[in-house]
Design brief:
The longest helix has 29 residues. Helices cover 33% and strands 28% of the residues. The radius of gyration is 20 Å and the shape is globular. The protein is α/β, with parallel strands linked by helices. It has 2 domains: 229 residues, 2-Layer Sandwich (Nucleotidyltransferase, domain 5); 133 residues, ATPase, nucleotide binding domain (Nucleotidyltransferase, domain 5), CATH 3.30.420.
């Protein structure tokens, strides 16, 4: 058993670095549909975007957050870095899926050393994995008060086999992993950098095969989970309903292909699938209110490629009864190259949120 490799995950105990000392790794978001890469540098109090790009993965190369075809993934990462002319070798990655457990537990207040010893010896009662098979990390959220001597602990456990698979694959192409994060926490990082965490918000990233939910209340992540639903559901159903190729189904899903007489069937597919997404989000919000009845949730913030589906924000607003907004990860991150087209940034922004959240994490390694 040990900490998540190389860095204290979302919860780094790092020395404060001066602007000149800060080093920012490549943000590398490896999804089931595509790979996203971002690189930034500090510009005053804000960030400057140096490069970004994405490339589609072969079907089945990554499933449920697990590398199935590491050599294919490595080839695409190498191609992206070469095409973007990125020389940096340090990377920050995120992990997700069944191999990761994020759990909040409540314990008596302890000194740091005592708490660490307790977590190391007693964590088995909180996670469903064999302790010897996981990397472990945690953060004391310091929710105790003078009247209440207990505190919430955010606990993260990730299967070594899965994490080591990513480390080995990236090492094979000359990259050094300096940060291993959780997708939902990277999402919180980019939201905080561009806006603020003054409001209580549900950060929801909809990818091809998973929906990452991170509810942040009073500046603290209080509920984080991945749900195995995503925009590929729509693609598969459209493809099966009309007997068309995956590319044609993607075009219909995103509105690139003419709908014509297919509109009624498409409406039915969207209604059924998006209702399922809304129900999963409602479950998370209901659990949040069970534990935080007096902390009103202000809004839902959407990101991810699936969030670009036309009308999804309005559908969620009507189904859940909360204001819904699209995350713009570039509010305070300006293009540092004339080669980066603003219209492309506007389009690609939602699906770059996690990669950017990783890229703005400074590292000493």
């Amino acid at each position: 058993m040990g900490s998540l490799p190389l860095a204290k995950n979302k919860f780094p105990k790092l020395k404060l670095l001066s602007a000149k000392q800060q080093q920012f790794p490549i943000g590398l978001d490896i999804g089931s549909h595509s790979i996203k890469i971002c690189q930034v540098a500090k510009s005053g109090n804000d960030f400057k975007l140096l490069s970004l790009g994405s490339a589609k993965l072969p079907e089945g190369a990554v499933e449920d957050g697990i590398l199935q075809e590491p050599e294919e993934v490595a080839k695409i990462i190498t191609y992206l870095l070469k095409n973007l002319k990125v020389k940096e070798k340090k990377v920050a990655i995120s992990i997700s899926g069944y191999s990761v457990i994020v759990k909040k537990i409540n314990l008596s207040v302890m000194e740091e050393k005592v708490l660490d010893e307790y977590i190391q010896t007693e964590v088995g009662q909180y996670i469903p994995f064999d302790i010897e098979d996981v990397y472990l990390d945690y953060q004391d959220l310091h929710t105790n008060t003078e009247e209440y001597d207990r505190t919430d602990i955010m606990l993260v456990a990730a299967k070594k086999e899965v994490v080591d698979g990513y480390l080995s694959m990236l090492q094979s192409v000359g990259l050094k992993v300096v940060i291993v994060d959780i997708g939902g926490f990277a999402l919180e990082n980019i939201y905080d950098a561009n806006y603020s965490l003054d409001e209580n918000v549900a950060l929801v990233d909809i990818g091809a095969t998973k929906m990452s939910i991170n509810i942040v209340s009073q500046g603290i992540s209080v509920l984080a989970r991945d749900v195995v639903v995503g925009s590929r559901q729509l693609t598969d159903q459209i493809q099966n309903r009309f007997g068309i190729s995956i590319d044609e189904a993607e075009g219909l899903k995103m509105g690139y292909e003419p709908v014509e007489e297919k509109q009624k069937d498409l409406d039915e597919i969207y209604a059924n699938t998006c209702t399922q997404w809304a129900l999963e989000l409602k479950k998370a919000i209901d659990l949040y209110y069970t534990n935080n009845p007096d902390m009103t949730l202000n809004k839902i913030i959407l990101s991810g490629g699936g969030s670009r589906i036309q009308g999804l924000d309005q559908f969620f607003a009507e189904e859940i009864g909360l204001q819904v907004e699209q995350l713009d990860p570039f509010v305070k991150i300006k293009g540092g190259s004339k080669n980066i087209d603003q219209s492309y940034l506007n389009y690609i922004g939602p699906e770059m949120a996690i990669a950017l959240g990783l890229a703005i994490r400074p590292s000493e390694l």
